[in-house]
Design a protein that fits this description.
- This protein is of the alpha/beta class.
- The chain folds into 2 domains: about 90 residues, Rossmann fold (3-Layer(aba) Sandwich), CATH 3.40.50.20; about 110 residues, UDP N-Acetylglucosamine Acyltransferase, domain 1 (3 Solenoid), CATH 2.160.10.10.
- It has 3 helices and 23 strands.
- Strands 8, 10, 12, 13, 15, 16, 18, 19 and 21 form a 9-stranded parallel beta sheet that branches. An 8-stranded mixed beta sheet has the order 7-9-11-14-17-20-22-23, with helices on one face. A 6-stranded mixed beta sheet has the order 3-4-2-1-5-6, sandwiched between helices.
- α1 links the parallel β1 and β2.
- The longest helix has 15 residues.
- It is globular.
- The chain starts with a strand and ends with a helix.
- The relative contact order is 0.10.
Length: about 230
């Protein structure tokens, strides 16, 4: 298989290191390069940038071409996935990265294109959506559902029976207590403690978390009309 990483920023450098770890552990694929709209073709540190995603030529027949996004912004990641699906269809398939040091328990479903980073813990009876990021040492407990395009940042804790809506952003070190719901495209600030349901398209911060703005609604609507 040939793998392309979309994005060449800080998260892409992390993804590169995860892929190198997998390669040393026996992963049989080939990292073909990185795709980025903002950088011309060339070598950037250890990242071989091939140009923008729109310039990628993938054969329309035959399996073996995959991609994973390395964009920290949830709306940007969704937009890029939509663009790639429109351009390449099924010829370029999303690839799921699960680092060898992640702990994956029983009955855990992980969607295509999702990145499970080093030290992440997914305990049991969990559904993780497509194109998510479960970052370094983040934990998701039993009976949780996580929607597509969610970003769970380093050391965040999602307790049992939590529902995290599509595109939600859970800040580093945040805690979401059991049986709480986080609405789609909402942002939970770093270190926040969520003790009650959070509606869609808001930002909540603090201990306990409180809503401070609704500006996420405008961002989500703008992306939806792209």
């Amino acid at each position: 298989m040939k793998l392309y990483v979309v994005g060449a920023g800080g998260h892409a450098r992390e993804v590169h290191s995860y892929i190198e770890d997998l390669r040393r552990a026996g992963w049989p694929g080939t990292l073909a390069g990185f795709l980025d709209d903002a950088l011309p073709k060339g070598l950037y540190g250890r990242l071989k940038v091939l140009g923008p995603p729109s310039a990628l030529a993938v054969p329309k027949s035959g399996p073996g071409y995959f991609y994973i996004t390395a964009l920290g912004s949830n709306p940007d990641r969704r937009r890029m996935v939509e663009d790639l699906e429109e351009i390449h269809g099924s010829a370029l398939a999303p690839w799921t990265l699960i680092h060898a040091s992640a702990a994956i328990g029983e009955d855990v479903k992980i969607g295509a294109g999702t990145c499970i980073a080093p030290g992440a813990i997914l305990t049991a009876q969990i559904s993780i959506g497509r194109h998510c990021i479960v970052n370094v040492k983040a934990s998701v407990s039993h009976d949780c559902t996580v929607g597509d395009f969610v970003n769970i940042n380093p050391s965040a804790t999602i307790c049992g029976s939590v529902n995290v809506g599509e595109g939600a952003y859970i800040g580093a070190g945040a805690t979401v207590i059991e049986k709480v719901s986080i609405g789609a495209w909402s942002v939970i600030g770093a270190g926040a403690v969520v003790t009650r349901d959070i509606p869609a398209n808001v930002t909540a911060v603090g201990v306990p978390a409180r809503i401070i703005k609704n500006s996420g609604l405008l961002t989500c609507q703008a992306r939806a009309t792209h």
